[in-house]
Amino acid sequence: MTGIRSGSVVAAVLSVGLLAGCGGGSSKAPESFESFTAEEIYKRGEYELENTRKPKDAVKYFTEVERLYPYSEWAKRALIMQAYSYHRARDYEEARGAAQRFIDTYPGDEDAAYAKYLLALSYYDQIDEIGRDQGLTFQALQSLREVIEQYPDTEYARSAILKFDLAFDHLAAKEMEIGRYYLKRGHYTAAINRFRVVVEEYQTTTHTPEALMRLVEAYLALGLNDQAQTAGAILGHNFQSSPFYEDAYAQLRGHGLKPEARGDSWLTRVYRQVIQGKWL
To answer: Where would I find the Outer membrane lipoprotein BamD-like domain in this sequence (predicted)?
Structure first.
């Protein structure tokens, strides 16, 4: 299983004798588990997880390990495997519940980092299309940040950083989509407010060059030349090779203007930060 150490949570070899004792390899669970050891039940769950197309079928075995052998080492392993099985089945709410129970019960365990990562992943994997509600994206960001901050030296933190950047970019994309919608319909002030969010709050994302170009377009439409020129200057300073700069430059030239910081607006303050090396 990806993300769990060999020998820690998942056993390396399945017992053939166990499979026969548990029903000859059938996926049907026996009516009673009392005659089996914790290890036998756990490995049966592992077999179901890796050899069937129904990850949830494995959950009942891991649950039984917890019920029959509470507070044992196998119960601890079974709990995190419940979270993993639910996640494989795309039952993200149950996955979060099991992962959180592991964190609450075994906060100092070496697998707590994986449980925390799995919890964050259950939010991340639910992120919807750009045009839909972004509540899960915010929750994913918060959970991924916790992995990064609490377990900075783990492989899970490295993966969380990559996913954090993608989720962050997703939020910026949402603002851009709405901004373009307003801009296309001539609602320039509403569009500017959306593009401003990208420039000020999501400036490290891939959407910043376009947001600045759209600001040039919107401000020119409103006759606010100083702001348009300043947005163009920021774009030229940071993204001069971008096609969005070429577009913004052409728009300014079409109005007899050039990219330069002018006036005293929020964009002028951003420009000063750019020059001072405090932005991007």
So the answer is: 37-231
Asked if residues 241 and 250 have their Cβ atoms less than 8 Å apart, the reply is no
Distance CA 197, CA 34 (A): 59
User: pLDDT per residue over 82-129, tens digit each?
Assistant: 999 999 999 999 999 999 999 999 999 999 999 999 999 999 998 865
pLDDT confidence band for 40 (50 / 70 / 90): very high
User: Which residues have CB under 8 Å from 105's CB, separation 6+?
Assistant: 76, 79
